[in-house]
Amino acid sequence: MTNKKDPFAAAQTASNRQLGADVVKNLTSKGFEAIYVDTGEQALEEVLKLIPQNATVGIPGSVTIRQIGAIEKLQERGCTIAQHWDPTLSPEQKKEILKKEFLSDYFLTSSNALTEEGMLVNIDGTGNRVSAMAWGTNILIFVVGINKIARDVDSALARIRDKATPPNAIRLNIDTPCSHVGHCVDCNSATRVCRAILILERPTTGRETHVIVVGENLGY
Questions:
Q1: Tens digit of each residue's pLDDT (9 = 90 or more) over 82-122
Q2: Which of 219, 20, 207, 24 is nearest to 122 (CA)?
Q3: Are 132 and 58 in contact (CB under 8 A)?
């Protein structure tokens, strides 16, 4: 029996490409250096084109970057990775790693959401990610799955609070109200992880900022 390409998967791929191309066009018009790729494997290839051997790379708490295998591949190329996710780090060591992430040659991350008109929307608890996205002397690289595209800023914020924050809190073992009910309740908990919002309408002045939009679901 001859194997035929799954027509449903083919239609989804075509739809993702159309959406991705439109978002990339809008990102590019705003000054971002943006491209679309179909898969996480292709996204990793683009990351490796941008980051040279032996560079220092800051990688914050991004599921997407780990899903595409970027850390292992960059280490194989002699890059020094700064990541504060190591559970063996003491609080003081973690503070030092956070500084190294911020001061690296490249800051490699994802975005909590990306609007159709080309704005990157992020919510942070400690502020380390959004501060590094807002200002830095390094090159900023985003890898964003198609699942994170939202119609507008309001939809992006709703997506982050209801779709991204609860599983992230559960994954990180943070006892928040949303981790118990599975959606945002706009809590006043001491453990609240939604504390700082950054909307990048354009790359910040003078900063090289790349966005790789991926036609696969990546991260939360």
A1: 999 887 889 999 999 999 999 999 999 999 999 999 999 99
A2: 219
A3: yes
**Which residue in this structure is represented by tokens 């683009």?**
46
Cα separation, 145 vs 110, in Å, equals: 8
Pull the structure tokens for residue 105.
């040659």
Residues 187-217 as b or e (16 or more Cβ within 10 Å = b): eeeeebbbeeebebeebeeebebbbbbbbbe
Q: Answer whether 114's CB lies under 8 Å from 183's CB.
A: no
Are 59 and 82 spatial neighbours (Cβ–Cβ below 8 Å)? yes
Beta-strand relationship, 56-58 and 80-82: parallel
pTM value is 0.93
